[in-house]
C-alpha cells in the first residue's frame, strides 16, 4: 500500500488524511524528520505559510524536506503548502523550501473575496472541480517544463513541475477525491519497477 505523509504541524491535516485514505493509501502524520522515512510521497497542507515555516524550523524539518525532494519523491502543496514549495514568493527576499520551479503571490484574490468556491476546469478532468479558495495565493509563473493545470480569472491556480504538484485551493475540503487520486498516480508503481526481465510486461 502506498504510504503518503501529511505535514502535521498546522492547518488542514485531518482532511488530507481522510482524502488519502478514501483513495486507498496509508496516511502518515509527519511532525519529526524520522517520520519521513519510508514514505512514498508527502502533502503539505493549507494553513498559514509563515506559521508553518516557523514550525518547520522548530521541528528541524527544513533540511529533511529538501532532502525528500532531492530523492525525487512526489510532493503536493495545497494553498499555504504551495507557498512553502515555491522557488519564489513575490515581495519576499527568500522562499521557504524553494524546491518547485514556480513563482507565487500570497493572498491574491482580494479582501472582499477572501473565501469562495468556484467550479474549476482542470486539464485532464472531464467535469469541473468545485474548488474552495481561502485567502488563496496564485501561481504567477511556471518554469520551463512545468505544466499549468488550472486557471481562474486569468490566474494560474494549479500546476505541475517534475515531481511537484501544487494548487491554490483546498481539494481536501470537498468529497471529490480526483485531485488526491491524481497526486497518488504520480507515485511510481512498485510493480513497474520490480517486474522480472523475463516478464511479458517488461517489453512495455
Ligand atoms: N494566505 C495563507 C498564507 O499565505 C494561505 C491560506 C491557506 O492556506 N488557506 O499562508
Q: Number of folding domains?
A: 1
Number of helices: 6
What percent strand? 25-35%
Beta strands, count: 12
Radius of gyration, Cα only, in angstroms?
17 Å
Oligomer: single chain
- Named at the architecture level, the CATH assignment is 3-Layer(aba) Sandwich
Pathway: Cofactor biosynthesis; pyridoxal 5'-phosphate biosynthesis
Pfam family, one: SNO
Organism: Planococcus liqunii
Subunit structure: In the presence of PdxS, forms a dodecamer of heterodimers. Only shows activity in the heterodimer.
Describe the protein in words:
The chain has about 200 residues and is an alpha/beta fold. Helices cover about 25% and strands about 30% of the residues. The chain is built from six helices and twelve strands. The protein has helices at about 15-20, 50-60, 60-70, 80-85, 180-185, 190-195, and strands at about 5, 25-30, 40-45, 75-80, 85-90, 100-105, 115-120, 130-135, 140, 145-150, 155-160, 165. It has a seven-stranded mixed beta sheet with strand order 2-1-3-4-12-11-10. Strands 5-6-9 form a three-stranded mixed beta sheet. The longest helix is centred in the first third of the chain and has 10 residues, at about 15-20. It is globular. Mean pLDDT is about 95; it is low at about 195-204. The structure holds glutamine. Glutamine binds near residues 47 and 135.
Amino acid at each position: 500500500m502506498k504510504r503518503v505523509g501529511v505535514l502535521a504541524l498546522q492547518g488542514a491535516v485531518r482532511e488530507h488524511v481522510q482524502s488519502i485514505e478514501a483513495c486507498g493509501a496509508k496516511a502518515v502524520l509527519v511532525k519529526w524528520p524520522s517520520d519521513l522515512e519510508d514514505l512514498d510521497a508527502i502533502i503539505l497542507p493549507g494553513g498559514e505559510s509563515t506559521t508553518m515555516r516557523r514550525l518547520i524550523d522548530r521541528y528541524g524539518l527544513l533540511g529533511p524536506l529538501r532532502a525528500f525532494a532531492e530523492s525525487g519523491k512526489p510532493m503536493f502543496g495545497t494553498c499555504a503548502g504551495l507557498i512553502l514549495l515555491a522557488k519564489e514568493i513575490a515581495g519576499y527576499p527568500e522562499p521557504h523550501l524553494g524546491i518547485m520551479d514556480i513563482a507565487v503571490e500570497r493572498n491574491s484574490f482580494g479582501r472582499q473575496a477572501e473565501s469562495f468556491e468556484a467550479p474549476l476546469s482542470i486539464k485532464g478532468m472531464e467535469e469541473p472541480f468545485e474548488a474552495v479558495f481561502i485567502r488563496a495565493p496564485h501561481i504567477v509563473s511556471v518554469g520551463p517544463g512545468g505544466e499549468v493545470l488550472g486557471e481562474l480569472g486569468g490566474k494560474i491556480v494549479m500546476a505541475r513541475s517534475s515531481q511537484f504538484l501544487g494548487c491554490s485551493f483546498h481539494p481536501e475540503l470537498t468529497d471529490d477525491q480526483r485531485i488526491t487520486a491524481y497526486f497518488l498516480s504520480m507515485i511510481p508503481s512498485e510493480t513497474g519497477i520490480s517486474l522480472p526481465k523475463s516478464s511479458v510486461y517488461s517489453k512495455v
